[in-house]
Every structure is written in C-alpha cells, then in structure tokens.
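Dear support,

I submitted the protein below through the web form. The confirmation email said the job was done, but the results page showed an empty box. After a refresh the structure appeared. I'm attaching both so you can tell me whether what I see now is the final result or a partial one.
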Amino acid sequence: MAGGSVDWAEAFTATGARRADLPTYPFTRQCWWPAPATTDTAIEQAADITTAVCTAVADVLGAHGTVGLGDDIVARGLNSLAAAELRGRLQAVTDLRISMTDILDNPTIRSLAKVLDEHRRPGSPRRPPIPSTLSASTGGCRPRW
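What the results page shows now:
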C-alpha cells in the first residue's frame, strides 16, 4: 500500500474550518485554547437555580403554581421548620452550603435564587463535610460517659 495526496481544502469545504496560527516554541506560556462561552452558560445556570428554588418552595409550602418569584414566602407560611426543610432540599439539589440566614433574609424566590447563584461562583463556600465526631476543640460537645 502506498499513501496518496489529500486535498484538504475539499475535505473541509462547508465545515467552517479554518487555519489557525499556533506557536512554534512550546514554552511561550501563552494559552491557545479557545475561551469558553460564559454568557449563555451563566444565564442557563441562573435559570436552573431559580427553577430549583421555585420547585423546592412549592414542595415545602404545598403551593404548586401559586407562589410568584416576588412573593414573600415567609408571609405565605414559611416558618422555621419549613425553612429548615427548604434548606435541606436546596442543599441536596445544589450541593451548596446554605445557611438559615440565607433562607430567612431572602424571603422571595427571586432574592433567594440570586444569593444561591452568587454562592455557586468560584471561591464561594461549598457545603463542608459533616464531621464524624465533635470535640470541644472544634466548638462541639463531647458526650460524658
């Protein structure tokens, strides 16, 4: 078998492919990967978090389709027990570290979703692992035997 010549221009016709200038020296410390499109992704993620909050609030309050994005969910019946349940559901869905203060200081779906979206940004705290034992040195209590 012998190789043959390839007409690369014909092979890539109508594909949108084009030549790209690449570095010839490997240690130029320059990134040549294309930058990711962040705008659409950020909008989609914000929409996803709003949907997650809306669904969790509706489940906790038993008010599917009746709670608007700007409605005060505390006035709609979110007490401390329901807020704890909402926090647990949102932590399970988003894998974020969410405090009760986050829930109670943001009484609308829109404001809570905005805070959770800010928590998802790089550098924001994630949910820490649950310690297997608590000790006095970590601020917890030790059982007395």
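Response: this is the final, complete result; the empty box was a page-load delay. Confidence is low (pLDDT under 50) at residues 127-145.
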